[in-house]
Amino acid sequence: MANEEVAMAQITWQILGAGAIGCLFAAKLKQQGEQVHLVLKPNKSTSSLTLVNLDGKTHRFEVSASDKLQRQASVILVCLKAWQVTDAIKQHLTNIHPDSIVVLLHNGMGTLAPCQALLPHHRIWQASTTHGALLESAFAVRHTGQGETLIGHSQLQSLIELTPAEQPQTLNQADVVTALDDALPASRWSLNIGHAIWTKLVINCAINPLTALQQVRNGILAEAHYRPSLQRICQECCAVANADGVALKTDDLLAKVEQVIHATANNYSSMNRDFFYQRPTENDYILGYVIARAKALKITVSTCQTLYQELQHREHTLCQPPS
């Protein structure tokens, strides 16, 4: 008897956060015919999403949206600022179905432990994406750069790469990754998600603070006089990562940072825009996370510490209400 192909289970996706990345994933999943619910702030509403693809073609999709998480088994993509994540999980806690998978997709580190404490019996995954997205207006997103999305279980921190046949994927894992890859390639499961998250953290530590403090586009950091600072940041971050059990090399990370600077030369970093619009930054979850781990591991990170303090001072000044 011939083997019958098993149909992939229908997945319900709930996107927590309607910024550029949240809208990109929501729109791409809708374009692929997936069931999507967008979870908005209480004062926001929409019934549609607009997507401009890399080929310049514009698409408009009807979308389910409200300020409430639907209590049903689903994949919950958390696409918020890092400092918003814990409060959002608390707010929607009673509506997070026991069978749901929570996927943390944001800059920085430091939200995993609080989320695990709030959801001790849920599957919590981490994800990192290099796709570029620009929110041109509310619920209208442009896909600005092809990238890759890595997803992994928070406890799988091994640096050993296994073959696909050896990877301990459940059906749910395979379904989620396949659906994401169909909607927004390339997406894949990683047994080494800690390496990917730390790599992106170092890139953020190098680019975000300098572009925010100087209020410049990413490409300005390609100027020669920024290289010593970028190198020191990478060196300090890699020392902390290595002591924390994640193998990173300074030269490799510096090369990745320079690659991102050139690839996103005309872009503004997220922290740059936070300063520009006088919004809270993710400083505590980017440089702040590195500094906290460095303190615990008794490692000196003077460059990161100086940048962190400068950012804190600037943020405090910008976010002060007028007298």
UniProtKB/TrEMBL annotation:
Function: Catalyzes the NADPH-dependent reduction of ketopantoate into pantoic acid.
Database matches in Gene3D superfamilies: N-(1-d-carboxylethyl)-l-norvaline Dehydrogenase, domain 2, NAD(P)-binding Rossmann-like Domain
Short name of any one Pfam family annotated for the protein: ApbA
Entry-linked InterPro entries: 6-PGluconate_DH-like_C_sf, 6PGD_dom2, ApbA, Ketopantoate_reductase, KPA_reductase, KPR_N, NAD(P)-bd_dom_sf
Domain Ketopantoate reductase C-terminal: 192-314
Organism of provenance: Motilimonas pumila
Domain of life of the native organism: Bacteria
Descriptive protein name: 2-dehydropantoate 2-reductase
A GO cellular-component term linked to this record: cytoplasm
Catalytic activity of the protein: (R)-pantoate + NADP(+) = 2-dehydropantoate + NADPH + H(+)
The entry's keywords: NADP, Oxidoreductase, Pantothenate biosynthesis
One function term, GO molecular function aspect: NADP binding
Known EC number: 1.1.1.169
Coiled coil: none
Gene Ontology biological-process entries: pantothenate biosynthetic process
Pathway assigned to this chain's UniProt record: Cofactor biosynthesis; (R)-pantothenate biosynthesis; (R)-pantoate from 3-methyl-2-oxobutanoate: step 2/2
Family: Belongs to the ketopantoate reductase family.
Residue ranges annotated for the Ketopantoate reductase N-terminal domain, each copy included: 14-153
Biological classification of the source: Bacteria, Pseudomonadati, Pseudomonadota, Gammaproteobacteria, Alteromonadales
